[in-house]
Design a protein that fits this description.
5-stranded mixed barrel; 28% helix; BirA Bifunctional Protein, domain 2; OB fold (Dihydrolipoamide Acetyltransferase, E2P); 4 domains; alpha+beta; Gyrase A, domain 2
Length: 629
């Protein structure tokens, strides 16, 4: 049954403007008359005294009402509920020594309530919202997203959004100090599909034609460089119609940067300066620059990924030579076929029991997708090494040779996978991260042990077996390395790009490149991608035409702002640092988007639904659709 309204509690606000926030008052304010406004966090009745913890985004202040000070206010306070909105007028006084709360910024004072105005009442919320962490309930994310306006009252979320705001301000100051112009690029643009799927917007004025929401302002920012604006920056909303993860949303924000006459070194220096300013302002930490660098090939061979977490060891090693002549046919056939045997050392795990190793083998085959796991255990007591193969299948001296090559000593565990590169390295990289989490070797996101890394020298192209053609590793506007340009058509696999990614703690937080700036080179890259001159002119003619008129060399980078804030906040998901995020199905439960639209709207746009058989529109949409047809 619905709760009964409590309109009898409501009273006009005769207190005027608030004088202080709920996090502002300190012992030096003792004796001052104040007006506070906010939400009731908690209410406690102590026989003749009513204590209210009053909350706003700035903090919490304890207010005390007694019948001796104001009988009406005391009685009204006794009827307050969580999340009622109130105005309090009173006097600041010190708390007694026994009542001081050292965990609260306002914990040395309280406000003696002289007058109370109830500005609005609240029904019992579907979950507890409180500035007191111990009073928060473990509420499922689905319910919190449905009532996001309540969830946003939680201090943790408010702190994350405050951090995000501060990051915006530092970023804008930094680029303004470096002579960048903040320029807005269109949100409604042309669909130029290459990579993720576009979100499309139908045009009413041009039936059958569509705008696309930008996946990136890439071509526009290049055109700004052709236009001579020299240095561009934008904190920009972008959109990609792709499957979601904890660190991915269909709409996201990036710090978009472009410079004329840029070199890789200039981009590195500029970006490192921004990171140093952000960490100084937001973390009170001094970053060491320049950041380390690693080539794409080295990252893949050493860590099994192009975004390695370098905060812990367990590097990968090619131990194929250690098993030459071993007679173990599985290994020998893989190596003879051009594959590798890849090993990693897990310190201190050599005494695992058989059940633990069986679970690890299951994880490798079922979750990582490897064909199998061969392991070697070096017990901590120095006794004989054990392995999960009989010595008849693989004599132990070969396992000992592999263990020696990876630097294993007594007490260590050596894990090996075999297969074709790059897949076997990627699988070993996944295993490395799993063992890092399981053993605690990988630092917690909140540890503050941040390590940046530039990954450089990416391949320009990669072959897509499903599409039967080459695709861009980054995007088709990335410049090839000058020394590789002559091999573009006859040996595209060996062409390296002038591209770079910035990695933080195993997370890619940015990527960029020096761009192609001549029509001839751009068309050569399009040709290798299977985009002939006619198609290139149709899709990218505006850019190719611009290159005819003195386009300068240029380059830049885009940094994922949402992911940066997530890592700075130590949050588990992007949804914790976005005010109104989508869930993992791409929906916003609070406003119920995406939603059905009236068939008349579709008719205006010259559109008609052709739904899959298992999708049934609501009755009112189906009914109106039949009437329209």
């Amino acid at each position: 049954m619905a709760e009964q309204p409590r309109a009898d509690l409501l009273s006009p606000d005769t207190h005027g403007a608030r004088t202080h926030t709920c996090g502002a008052l300190r012992h030096d304010d003792t004796g001052e008359g104040v007006t506070l406004k906010g939400w009731v966090d908690t209410r406690r009745d102590h026989g003749g005294l009513v204590f209210i913890d009053l909350r706003d985004r700035y903090g919490l202040t304890q207010v005390v009402f007694s019948p001796q000070d104001n009988q009406d206010a005391y009685e009204a306070a006794g009827r307050l509920r969580r999340e009622d909105v109130i105005s309090v007028r009173g006097t600041v006084r010190p708390r007694g020594d026994e009542a001081v709360n050292p965990n609260l910024a306002t914990g040395t004072i309280e406000v003696k309530g002289d007058s109370l105005a109830v500005l609005n009442t609240a029904e019992t919320p579907p979950f507890v919202v409180s500035a007191h962490e111990e009073r928060q309930m473990d509420t499922g994310e689905a319910l919190r997203l449905k009532h996001r306006y309540l969830d946003l009252r939680r201090p943790a979320l408010q702190d994350n959004l405050t951090l995000r705001h501060r990051l915006y301000q530092t970023t804008r100051r930094y680029f303004d100090d470096h002579d960048f112009l903040e320029v807005e690029t269109p949100v409604l643009m042309k669909s130029t599909p290459e990579g993720a799927r576009d979100f499309l917007v139908p045009s009413r004025l041009h039936p059958g034609r569509f705008y696309a929401l930008p996946q990136s302002p890439q071509t526009y920012k290049q055109l700004l460089m052709v236009g001579g604006l020299d240095r561009y920056v934008q904190i920009v909303k972008c959109f990609r119609d792709e499957d979601l993860r904890a660190d991915r949303q269909p709409e996201f924000t990036q710090i978009d940067v472009e410079m004329t006459f840029a070199t890789e070194e200039q981009v590195y220096d500029l970006t490192e300066g921004l990171m140093a300013d952000l960490w100084a302002d937001l973390e009170d930490t001094t970053l060491e620059t320049p950041f380390p660098r690693m080539t794409y090939a080295e990252a893949l061979r050493t860590y099994g990924t192009d975004k390695p977490d370098t905060r812990f060891g367990m590097e990968l090693h090619d131990v194929s030579d250690c098993f030459a002549g071993s007679g173990f046919r599985v290994f020998e056939s893989i190596v003879d076929g051009g594959g590798d045997i890849v090993a990693l050392r897990v310190p201190g795990e050599g005494d695992r029991n058989r059940a633990q190793m069986d679970r690890l083998e299951d994880y490798v085959t079922e979750e990582i997708g490897a064909a199998g796991l061969i392991y070697f255990q070096l017990p901590s007591d120095g006794s004989e090494m054990t392995q999960n193969l009989s010595t008849d299948a693989l004599p132990k001296e070969y396992g000992r040779a592999a263990a020696e090559q990876v630097g294993a000593t007594a007490g260590d565990l050596v894990l090996t996978l075999a297969g074709d590169p790059p897949t076997v390295y990627e699988q070993a990289g996944d295993l490395r991260l799993y063992m890092g989490e399981e053993t605690g070797a990988r630092p917690d996101p909140r540890s503050g042990e941040d390590q940046f890394l530039w990954v450089t020298d990416f391949p320009l192209l990669e072959y897509d077996e499903d599409a039967g053609r080459y695709v861009s590793m980054h995007h088709p506007f990335t410049a090839p390395q000058p020394d590789d340009l002559d091999h573009l058509e006859d040996d595209p696999d060996d062409v390296q790009a002038r591209a770079y990614d910035l990695v933080l703690n195993g997370n890619e937080i940015g990527g960029g490149s020096i761009r192609i700036h001549t029509r001839e080179t751009q068309q050569r890259v399009f040709d290798v991608l299977g985009i002939d001159a006619d198609e290139a002119q149709e899709r990218f003619g505006f850019l190719l035409d611009a290159f005819r008129y003195g386009a300068p060399p240029h380059g830049g980078i885009a940094l994922g702002l949402d992911r940066l804030v997530m890592l700075l906040a130590g949050a588990d998901s992007l949804r914790d640092v976005i005010a109104f995020p989508k869930n993992q199905s791409g929906q916003e439960p609070m406003v119920q988007s995406p939603d059905w639209v009236d068939p008349e709207q579709l008719e205006t746009l010259a559109l008609r639904l052709d739904l899959p058989p298992d999708v049934e529109p609501p009755a009112h949409v189906a009914r109106r659709s039949r009437l329209a047809s």
